[in-house]
Amino acid sequence: MTNHSGHSGHGAHAGHGGHAGHGGAQPGGLSVSQNGYTLELDSTIRTPGAQPVSFRVIGPDGRPVTEYTPEHEKELHFIAVRRDTAGFQHVHPVRDEKGTWSVELSLEPGDWRFFADVHPVGHDGTMTLGIDAAVAGPYDPRPLPEATGIARIGEYTVALDGELLPGEASRLTLTVSRDGRPVTDLQPYLAAYGHLVALRVGDLGYLHVHPEGEPGDGVTAPGPGITFMAVAPSAGTYRLYLDFQHNDAVRTAEFTVRTAETTPRPDAAPQAAPVPVPEHGSHHHGDHAHH
Q1: Same domain for 155 and 121
Q2: With contact defined as beta carbons under 8 Å apart, do 144 and 54 qualify?
């Protein structure tokens, strides 16, 4: 996924044009500090329940950043998710003139990861900073949901079509229906018909993508399908969270996705020849390929 700066170390984004970036680009959100900017949380130890959360982005000069370049209609996108991938929340905090952001979150006991997706004025692109927070109380981690390709939110069903490929671009289409009928009047949300965040299971590496096309371009239909171009930085399991708006309400569909095996390119370096085994050997190691 192409990030706005073109540097693979920043939060990974796909622009509205849907052009994928460099395969294998590192995900964002793995560091609390990057390029001289640091995410500073008012408190990393929290109590459970609904509560205000305040934070700052400290710039290279040691002061809170107060000037941002809006991306997808917002100066800052804030994501909260528990380490077991439950409790996903995509919110948009309010900033005061001194650079402190505040937002309401609902937090259950456990270990959480907070992400701030920002483009400070004067920096060459968007970056994603991440910080851990601990919420006190008995923690009941939830098992990872199965990779079914179907998400149900009330009367809505979202179907995922396409495979996530490690290190190369792949097309993912999410199709929204309501009570079995295709939804063809999705409303724009953050300058798109859908907003997708992908997190790598294991370290919550952050991939933030947007669909091909945009509302009002004369080409992109308001549903039922929303198409994204995505690049998984590595093989593994990912959690996908799709925000979409219909009937003036934003809903989130969640998916578990495992990367598909990729076919070696014709120009790829040849693999080493298998080690010969005796004709009557009981173990033919050369017959076992990596799955």
Answers
A1: no
A2: no
Residue 242: CB atoms within 10 Å: 24
Assess if residue 271 is contained within a domain.
Answer: no
pLDDT at 74: 94
- The secondary structure of the chain in percent helix, strand, coil, rounded to multiples of 5, reads 0, 45, 55
Domain that holds residue 176: 150-258
User: In sequence order, which residues have a C-beta less than 8 Å from that of residue 179 and are 6 or more positions away?
Assistant: 155
End of a domain among 107, 135, 163? 135
| Contact by Cβ (8 Å): 201, 166 | no
Tokens of 208: 């933030």
Mark whether 131 and 49 lie in a shared domain.
yes
Model confidence over 112-136: pLDDT tens digits? 999 999 999 999 999 999 999 999 9
Ranges assigned E (strand) in the chain: 12-13, 33-34, 37-41, 45-46, 49-58, 76-82, 89-91, 94-95, 100-107, 110-118, 127-135, 150-153, 156-161, 169-178, 181-182, 195-200, 205-209, 225-231, 237-246, 249-258
Contact 285, 277 (CB under 8 A): yes
